[in-house]
Amino acid sequence: MPVRALWRALGVLLTLQLLLFAAGCAGSSGGGGGRIEVAATTSVVGDLVRQVAGERAEVFVLVPPGAEPHTFQPTPRDAARISRSEVVFKNGLGLDDWVDDLLESAGREGQAVVELSRGLEPIGAEHGHHEEEQGHHAGHTRHEEEHGHHGEHARGNPHFWLDVRYAMRYVERIRDALVRVDPGGEEVYRENARAYMEELGRLDRYIRERASSIPEERRKLVTFHDAFPYFARAYGFEQVAVVLPNPNAEPGSREVARVVRVVREEGVPAVFTEPQFNSRLARTVAEEAGVEVYEIYSDTLPAGDGPRSYEAMMRTNIDRIAGALR
Questions:
Q1: Which of the ends of the chain has fewer CB neighbours closer than 10 A, N or C?
Q2: CB 277 within 8 A of CB 287
Q3: Strands, sheet with 57-61, edge to edge from the N-terminal-most edge strand
């Protein structure tokens, strides 16, 4: 595979550079009093890591805000930062598996890699063998029933963090991983995680209160891509259609017409798009169905104006959804 061969060649060069770097900067990691270096694949994961790490770690995010993580292509600069990171946090379940080739070529011995979704029970999984379960299993969404699984996510949908309770599970795993790689910072990491978990608890309650203000018969979601099944299940919505089931391929005219028909038949007043995708298709659906388009966030924090943290992103989402559906 040409891309894999390229990363392997780059890995050889990086190894030589790191030997020179280590000779001049020995002892520059967390044990020497400096901040440890940590990598996260996406801006959402990166924000969760920063909330726990505080000032004790420098967190590098591979996919910049506003970019689409499903199709991201790493650069040599990303490889260099990966090679210096004490721990790499990824989501998994196909969202950011491109980082595996990067780790193979540029990672180093003893480097911790934490897949935050590992062991959680994904919606749409073809097989039911998992280490843990969240403990709340509702029925399939309408979209799931019609298509069998969620777009390209044959191993299950990766967007756990859009249910705040799963984000809290991520925080626990981030805390534990940071303690393992930097035991001198254990007190800091545990206190930061404790305070942030309280904040996330308040966020979860806020979303539930806002969702309950929407009449039950109007809690129907038509989203641009298949990111919101955990959100829908957790907060009492029904995901009735998705404009772009597969981020790697545009739907045909028949699929677009089907979404328009669902919007009309279900009386859904809005279509929700996301800034990392071209909004043309969503606007076409909305115009043909005679409804409005609203922007919400899923895989990434925005590059320009907009929420700058996971907590702000989730509040923005529920406020816009509640305003559009009431």
A1: N
A2: no
A3: 57-61, 36-40, 87-90, 112-115
Whether the Cβ atoms of residue 200 and residue 167 lie closer than 8 Å to each other:
yes
- Going by C-alpha positions, the residue among 150, 156, 100 that lies closest to residue 130 is 156
Residue 35 per-residue DSSP state? P
- β pairing state of 112-115 and 87-90: parallel
Report whether 259 contacts 285 (CB < 8 A): yes
Tell me the average confidence (pLDDT) per consecutive run of 10 residues in the chain, 326 residues long. 50 42 38 80 98 98 94 94 97 96 94 97 67 36 43 76 98 98 98 98 98 97 96 98 85 92 97 91 95 96 93 98 96
Q: What is the pLDDT of residue 52?
A: 98
Strands 292-295 and 112-115: unpaired
Model pTM score: 0.83
State the number of CA atoms in the 13 A half-sphere of 189 facing the CB.
Answer: 22
In 7-115, DSSP assigns E strands to: 36-40, 57-61, 87-90, 112-115
**What contacts 74, CB < 8 A, 6 or more positions away?**
62, 98, 99, 102
